């Protein structure tokens, strides 16, 4: 009888875990959703929102300390150089809690932006409200937005490419391919990929 009870409890716990895991995965934007605008402070002191006069944006959840981000920073700069003039700038958002990860403080963001000479907006999601709305899980995590009328529609979610370790070893440039599809009026061939990177440093709840 005891074995049956234990088996039932384990089955129940596993089942609830799957349910809650599915709920967690379903949070945030999906392809085709309208992205809500935001207003976040940039390292240059300005306040940044989704660009009204652009065709879209590459929203990338980023940070200072993740080695995956460090490996991608030059590629993020190159993406901005190539596509910002075409109407799709990079907006990098750091949502990590500085109390959990001191290297991701706003002052450290300023230092990183200056040392790497970021050409794109690097903004601070201190409340973590924006990343929760998007459903970002990793750094870097890309959301390609395309403007249709007054709405910014999510067209691609995932990784920048398929090789974070070696830029020369990349065989699939996911973001660039998605951008080319969008700019040429085609349905995005690969709408989502798995974001590879560090987990978000969430604010710890007060006990």
Side by side, the strands of the main sheet go 1-9-8-4-5-6-2-3
Fraction of residues in H or I helices = 25-40%
Judged by helices, strands and strand pairing, the structural class is alpha+beta
CATH superfamily of the largest domain: Glutaredoxin
State the shape: globular
Give the helix tally: 5
Question: TL;DR?
Answer:
By secondary structure, this protein is of the alpha+beta class. The chain folds into two domains: 1-29; 31-199, Glutaredoxin. The chain has helices spanning 2-26, 67-83, 106-116, 129-134, 174-183, and strands at residues 34-35, 40-42, 47-48, 56-62, 90-94, 121-124, 138-139, 141-148, 151-158, 198-199.
Give the helices and strands, then pairings:
Blueprint: H1 2-26, E1 34-35, E2 40-42, E3 47-48, E4 56-62, H2 67-83, E5 90-94, H3 106-116, E6 121-124, H4 129-134, E7 138-139, E8 141-148, E9 151-158, H5 174-183, E10 198-199
Parallel strand pairs: 4-5, 5-6
Antiparallel strand pairs: 1-9, 2-3, 2-6, 4-8, 7-10, 8-9
Description:
- It is a single chain.
- This protein has 2 domains: 1-29; 31-199, Glutaredoxin (3-Layer(aba) Sandwich), CATH 3.40.30.
- The model is unreliable at 1-26 (pLDDT under 50).
- β4, α2 (67-83) and β5 (90-94) form a beta-alpha-beta unit.
- The chain is globular, with a radius of gyration of 19 Å.
- It has 5 helices and 10 strands, in the order αββββαβαβαβββαβ.
- It is α+β, with helices and mostly antiparallel strands.
- It has helices at residues 2-26, 67-83, 106-116, 129-134, 174-183; strands at 34-35, 40-42, 47-48, 56-62, 90-94, 121-124, 138-139, 141-148, 151-158, 198-199.
- It starts with a helix and ends in an 8-residue tail after the last strand.
- An 8-stranded mixed beta sheet has the order 1-9-8-4-5-6-2-3. It has a two-stranded antiparallel ribbon with strand order 7-10.
